[in-house]
Amino acid sequence: MTQQTSDSSEQSEWQPRIVAFLCNWCSYAGADLAGMSRFAYPAAIKIVRVPCSGRVDPMFVIKSFEQGADLVLVSGCHPGDCHYTSGNYHARRKLLAFRELLTFLGIDPRRFKISWVSAAEGAKWSSLVKELTAEVKELGPFETYSKILTGENGR
Amino acid sequence: MLKLTIDGQQVEVEQGKTILDAAKLAGKEIPTLCHHPAVPPAGACRICVVEIVAGDRPGLVPACAYPAKDEMEIQTRSERVLESRRMTLQLLLARSPGSDVIRQMAKEHGIKELPFPEQTGENGDDCIMCGLCVRLCQQIIGASAICFDGRGPDRKVSTPYKSQSDVCLGCGACAFVCPTGAIDPADYCPNPIEKIPNEFNCGLDSRTPIHIPFPQAVPNKPFIDRENCIRFRTGGCGACETICPAGAIDYDMTDEFVEEEVGAIIVATGYEIMDPSIYEEYGYGRYPDVVTSLEFERMVSASGPTNGELTRPSNGKPPMSIAFLQCIGSRRETGGKPYCSKICCMYTAKHTILYKHKVHDGQAFVFFMDIRAGGKNYDQFVRRVVKEKQATYLRGRVSKVFPRGDKLVVRGADTLSGTQVEIAAEMVVLVAAMVPSSGVRELSQKLRVGYDEHGFLLEAHPKLRPVDTNTAGVFLAGACHSPKDIPESVAQAGAAASKALGLVCHTRLSREPTIGVVDESSCNGCFECEGVCAYGAIGPREIKDKKGNVLATVAFINEGLCQGCGACAATCRSKSIEVQGYRDDQLFAAINAIHR
Asked: Which of residues 450-509 of B touch A (CB under 8 A)?
């Protein structure tokens, strides 16, 4: 699944799509700071703002993959720095457990990332997005679900 | 109360006081040597003799030890008294001819000739055998580390069995009370005598365990440093309590936690100066004449360790040339702080002026990267320093400071002339970077305020909300936020104060509308949500019918406490909690929209 076989012309046109759930106080502010500080990062990432990483329901992640995301990122405040005291700890426990279940859903766990970016780390956000974009390009498009939906997967 | 007449003057004292106490109250000066208010009197030196004329057995008595009695009549300067004092002083002078205190006292008493041979060598020193130190060590400190040793002419202050032992605390109280300054505590103490560095003067001088932290401290009152106080170390001493006329010393007082409920918090934790000893090339910590700006500031301060006299720490002479090295640690991407510390250009310019005020024909050199004098009249100030004070400003970094003879050679680049320069300076001042106060990270975690990689606290928005933080009700003022000078700090503090007032002056508080809402029709009352709520905002609510029977117990969110993090919504298995503004359907719509 990792090395998707597509013809070369399609590969060059394909732009990865990353869905990022960012907590309002740290990672979203960090992404904001990246913009304010004029740090460039790939446009492949689409941000959904949530109040806290603890708000992220695993269903959001599955929904994103179902809709065609190639990689999903959840980013919150650094452990110990949660604006809501402990939301990122809840997120960490829940999402790491959820990550173990991804293979069961037919999703490569490498397509699901968790990171901690603080409001001061605009540069870190920019380099993180660059890294993730490079990684997802390596992994290729996530087509398992779309193939099921379009009946290409032997159905 | 006892009524006494001292030199014809009426005075009243309490029962139990001595004649010396009464005389002090009457404003009569009686010379003393072996007396210390905290130490029980012994009447050993007999300098304080006074004459009882009436009211008790007439004669000469030591004022420090003789109790005052009712109807007593005392003469402190009668011919008999003065004659006795002169004799005592002549004997003391013969024993301790080298003591300045005794010589001065003898001079005041008109002693010109000495009828006794001056003792020198073994038999004569500054010690007048008054025993104040011994009494103090035994009765006040409680250590009994020193005692009298020997008899007759061999008598002297020593340690038991003439051997040093760990009984000596090294407190130095004996040297402190010695009237003639004859004691070096190192003679008695096996361990090195450690002076307590005065923190306010950057450790350039020492302080006592009980001290006022710094001039203009608020409140301007002394406090006891328990770690060093003998009272807390051994239970002895207590001298300050004995001496304090107001009875203000309370050893049982302890630090206490004060809990206050407040509506707003302003963080103004300030900054510290980074330790420049990490840069070995500048020799801070190795060469005594390399100091930091803060140390220089204390040295030239009138309330500083040298009372404002600028001297080289190595030899105590004024430095005829001085080099200020700016940007030590600032604007240094590797091994330092990448930011500009902002205030250094200006205070270094001020320091060159202060230097010229202290050393008129001295020459100041300033190594700088750039002069960042952005501020009202700042640039004019720096130009004035260069022009009027003839300070030599050299644009470039210093690579090394090393000693040559009794001077320090500062080797650096002058990028304007494109040459390497070497300056022999008698003193080098390192203008080190500004760093946030230690402990500010722990504080900001408590307040849930973000901080950057250097530890400076984060504002809510760099342009539009520079005083607020992302936590409602917490505001920033001063250098805890970023390097700032005084006018900027004052301006931000004013803004923070008015922001805080603006918050607390309303009778009602506004809050974000994005809080959790429970769908009571589907909530099954598992209370998983209660466990994840960091604010204790979730509790049970009973739904009753008209007869008062409990139909169901469901989750209830206190909307005053809820902050809207949504942990409960993500945890709820029956999907019965939604965060307003971040409802599941809204977020799903957002996810769908991305892929449209």
From this structure: 450-453, 458, 462, 470-471
